[in-house]
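Re: the request from the purification team.
They wanted to know what the chain is likely to look like in 3D before they choose a buffer screen. I agreed to run a prediction and write the result into the notebook, where they can find it.
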Amino acid sequence: MKNKIAIFCLFLGAMLLFLTNVFAQQNFLRLSILDVGQGDACLVNLNNEKIILLDGGPSNILLRRLGESLPFYKRRIDFVIISHFHEDHIIGLVELFRRYQVGTLIYGAGLEESHPAEIIFAEAARQGTKILAIKNESSFILGDNCYFKVWNLVSKYRVNDNNSLVTKLKCSHFSFLAAGDNELAAEKTILDLKLDIESGIFKASHHGADNANSLKFLEKINPQLMIISVGSDNKFGHPSEALIRRAYDLDIKVKRTDLLGTINIFTNIR
C-alpha cells in the first residue's frame, strides 16, 4: 500500500512539473469573466506570472471563483483595478485583501464614494499594497508587446454615480476592453476624445443595460465577442433585448455568465 501511494505521489509530481513546463513554454493568457451573479469581476492570468483582477463582485463568491481559476499555490494578485465603488463591483475585495497579497490597487480619483471603499483602502494599507489614484490616464507595461491602459473620465464628464474607469488590455494579437458601468453620455465622451478602444473582446457595460453599449460605441470598439456579466433572473432586466439585437446586427458573438457560468478565453500570446 505504501509503495502504491509513493508511486502515485511521484506520478502526480511529474504531471504537475510537466504541466508547469508546458504552460511556461506556451506564454499563455487566460481571461476569465467570473460568474459572480449580478456583478462584475474579471481575471487576467498571464502565464501564471502576472495576475490582474478587475473588480470584485457583490460577495465572497469571488474567493470561490478565484480558487477555481488560479493554481492553488497562487496567493498574490499583482494588480487589482476598481472600475467604480458600487457594491456589486467591490464587496468581494474586502475579503480578498485579507486572503491574498495584492501588489498594486488602482482606482479612479474622484470615484471613491462608499463605505466599503474605506475598508478596502484600510486593508490595502495594512498589507503594504501600492495604491494608485488615476486622475486622467495611465499605462502599465506587463511584458514585451503587452500592457494595459486605464482612463478616468471624471474630469471631463460627470453626470451620475455610474462613472467608471475604462480599462484596455493589449497583449500581442489579443485585446480586451471593459468600461464598468459607464452609460451613454460617458460613451459619447469616450468617442469625442478618440480614445483607442478598439478591441477584439468587450465586456458589456453596466451588465448589458440599454442605457449603455450604444451602436456607435460598439462600432468603434468593433469586437468579435461581447461578454455580459449578469445574474440570473435579475430585477433590472439585464441584459436588454435591444442590446442583444444590436450585437446580432453587428455580427458580434455574445456570451453571458447567467447562461454559461464563468467564461474563459485562452490564447497563446507568443
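For the purification team: The chain has a mean pLDDT of 91.
Please add any questions underneath this entry.
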